[in-house]
Amino acid sequence: MYKILIVKAKFYEEIVDELLRGAVQHLQMVSVKYNQITVPGAFEIPGAISMAFQSSLKGGISYDGYLALGCVIRGETNHYDYVCKESARGIMHLSLRNNLAITYGILTVENIQQAWERAKIENGKNKGKEFAEACITMISLRYQFSLT
């Protein structure tokens, strides 16, 4: 069975924890193993995934896929734009360069209400489950194309 590394950003922790709860519920339901690490924010997620992957090449734990979970909410400065663009670019670069199954589960929203709409399990719209499903799909494709 597959093994996934969940890399969770600590910034907006309550929202991200709700995404995590939805993702973990789904992974457990389909018997996918996972480990979890926490990084300060969304900007640090690609670096952590890169470290984990490089570690696996040197005999460390090997993962079939990676699930990036975070939340970035627009503020009064353009910091939002940098974090969104660079976290997405970093993850895409890792995915393409190394043929990794990485799911970008980072909410990029205008306000806290939009974040909670996408995170709450109780409203049936928790994106964490969808992100977990996407990660499993990408892992399956990686195996289908013999890229493991």
Automatic annotation (TrEMBL):
Gene3D superfamilies named in the record: Lumazine/riboflavin synthase
Positions of the catalytic residues: 79 (proton donor)
Record-given protein name: 6,7-dimethyl-8-ribityllumazine synthase
Record has Repeat as a keyword: no
HAMAP family, per database record: Lumazine_synth (MF_00178)
Gene responsible for this protein: ribH
Residues involved in (2S)-2-hydroxy-3-oxobutyl phosphate binding: 76-77, 118
NCBIfam families: lumazine-synth
Catalytic reaction equation(s): (2S)-2-hydroxy-3-oxobutyl phosphate + 5-amino-6-(D-ribitylamino)uracil = 6,7-dimethyl-8-(1-D-ribityl)lumazine + phosphate + 2 H2O + H(+)
Enzyme class: transferase
GO MF terms, alphabetically ordered: 6,7-dimethyl-8-ribityllumazine synthase activity; ligase activity
Pfam families according to UniProt: DMRL_synthase (PF00885)
EC number: 2.5.1.78
